[in-house]
Amino acid sequence: MSEQTIALVTGANKGIGYEIAAGLGALGWLLGVGARDEERRESAVAKLRAAGVDAFGVPLDVTDDASVAQAAKLVEDRAGRLDVLVNNAGITGGMEQLPTTVDVATVRTAVETNVLGVIRVTNAMLPLLRRSRAPRIVNMSSSVGSLTRQSTPGTEVGPIAVAYAPSKTFLNAVTVQYAKELSDTDILINAACPGYCATDLNGFRGVRTPQQGAAVAIRLATLPDGGPSGGFFEDEGEVPW
Ligand code: NAP
């Protein structure tokens, strides 16, 4: 079996996911570029290859069982196993998210991608991850999912958002449950906050670059054996739950 480390990044056609793929690819890894839109996926793969990354496209809509199953088959056929899964794909669900007036469909949409999508992809990839010597899973969360920060007056956590922010709280909780179940395996699974980065997600209002946002995910994807699992990290260290 190949010694080259094999990673899959979801939502890797642009933004932070693209930079995670570029950063891991620069380590000489084989990079699966998970993305649903064919044109954007193939242009990201071409750009990564031009930069010297050993990248291949993985058609993937994290909300679709059949798409996720096909993605797992494609990774298996291509590489036989998976070493690192970065669950990066995410959406805000839309801008109008005041709890008292929200359309519940907005909440459902955010949870479907940001939480159920992560569970769906993780479980489909787990058989391949279990074949790795040192499997790592990184879930791209956000500090807006920190209930401690949300309830600490004066802490900057963005606008009131009953879909997006709680979907990341939910994702954090899911990450902890996975870590508990997988605690007797070599799999390390952690949640990451990239900071406020200028991407499509926020109309490019973020103050950090997507490359800066990718750094914490790259660190968690390359954790040594015995590293943390079930944690929530940003560049400066642990994020309070
Ligand atoms: P972005 O530029 O909008 O990228 C989001 C990516 O997710 C895109 O590639 C998008 O693909 C993909 N995606 C969305 N729904 C998908 C689905 N159903 N199946 C597959 N892919 C899907 O946003 P970003 O800022 O880089 O966000 C990346 C992650 O970081 C998200 O989880 C986000 O919540 C998190 N985050 C971002 C910030 C920030 O300040 N930017 C802060 C905290 C956390 P399409 O091109 O097909 O839509």
Count every helix, treating DSSP H or I runs of 4 or more residues as helices. 7
Strand order of the largest sheet: 3-2-1-4-5-6-7-8
What's the level 1 CATH class? Alpha Beta
| Structural class estimated from helices and strands | alpha/beta
Could you say which overall geometry the principal axes of the C-alpha atoms support? globular
Order of helices and strands: EHEHEHEHEHHEHEE
Helix amount = 40-55%
Secondary structure tally: strands: 8
User: Judging by the overall fold, what is the CATH architecture?
Assistant: 3-Layer(aba) Sandwich
Count of folded domains: 1
What is the percentage of strand-forming residues? 5-15%
Cα Rg = 17 Å
Keywords:
single chain, 241 residues, alpha/beta, Rossmann fold, eight-stranded mixed sheet, 7 helices, 8 strands, 41% helix, binds NADP nicotinamide-adenine-dinucleotide phosphate
